[in-house]
Amino acid sequence: MIQIRQLRKSYGSNHVLHGIDLDVRPGEFVVMLGLSGAGKSTLLRCMNGLNHPDSGMLAVGGIDLMQKHSRRELARHVAMVFQHHNLVPRLSVRKNVLTGRLGQLGTLPSLLQLFRTSDIRLADQCLERVGLAHKADERTEALSGGQMQRVGIARALAQQPQVILADEPVASLDPKTARSVLQYLRDATRELGIAVVCNLHQVDYAREFGDRVVGLAQGRVVFDGAPTDLDEAALQVIYHGEPQEAYPRADAPVPAHATAAVLPSVPWMQASASVGSL
Ligand SMILES: Nc1ncnc2c1ncn2[C@@H]1O[C@H](COP(=O)(O)OP(=O)(O)O)[C@@H](O)[C@H]1O
Ligand SMILES: [Mg+2]
Hints:
The chain is about 35% helix and about 20% strand. By secondary structure, it is of the alpha/beta class. The protein has a single domain, classed as P-loop containing nucleotide triphosphate hydrolases (Rossmann fold), CATH 3.40.50. Strand 1 and strand 2 (about 15-25) form a beta hairpin. It is globular, with a radius of gyration of 19 Å. About 40% of the residues are buried. Mean pLDDT is about 85; it is low at about 245-260 and about 265-278. The site of magnesium ion has 4 residues, from helix 1. Magnesium ion binds near residues 40, 41 and 167.
């Protein structure tokens, strides 16, 4: 679903991503952890076509994102959930969800916001998935923070994407609400077979909701494994950049991404990364 090989991205002289390799499968919920400034948002923005990488390979849902694409084409494949949900407060909840369809309407219907009955039905189904069908006609500004974030998820689902990218979607919510929002996101995407990459700050949530955890440090993948393998040593590598005895083991074979491993950011690792077909 997502294929990334040796992806590099700089802002001027600031080299942010240093050769990222990552594959994400359909229906997989990947939590990305890392210190502030590690490059998590930059990587998500590359996957969403908002940032253009300097070099490497990047394909999402079969689209080669190293080439330029129209927003409409990308909207059929990738949806984004933001920390501050980016909803229009004065619009109804349903209308906000329907904006997820805009990228897929023709130019004129999109300008005039002429939605088909099928779009409206889809929006209501998406609201049902996040437990907010009964709020469809309410003004969005009347909702709580957690409910607004669930509307943001419904809007992303309404795009019928293959991939949802969530950048710290629960950073401004209290723990109970945050858990409930992540639960809705995970359940809906799992049932629909949507791949999710979700940047989070909280290790606890990564353990609880991730099918897989990817740790980023200074623009490199330094951990890629199951949440159960996210032990103290792994956290040390992700958050303090201090490889412990066992991490990495220089003699270890290059692990498949499904296998838990803390990946060393050393040249042999990069040289041996296979380049898959797009
Ligand atoms: N639009 C931008 N222009 C210039 N530098 C940026 C921009 N976005 C991010 N950066 C820089 O890239 C680095 C990684 O930032 P970011 O991807 O936001 O990390 P994270 O999401 O892990 O906190 C930081 O040094 C940040 O200052
Ligand atoms: Mg960020």
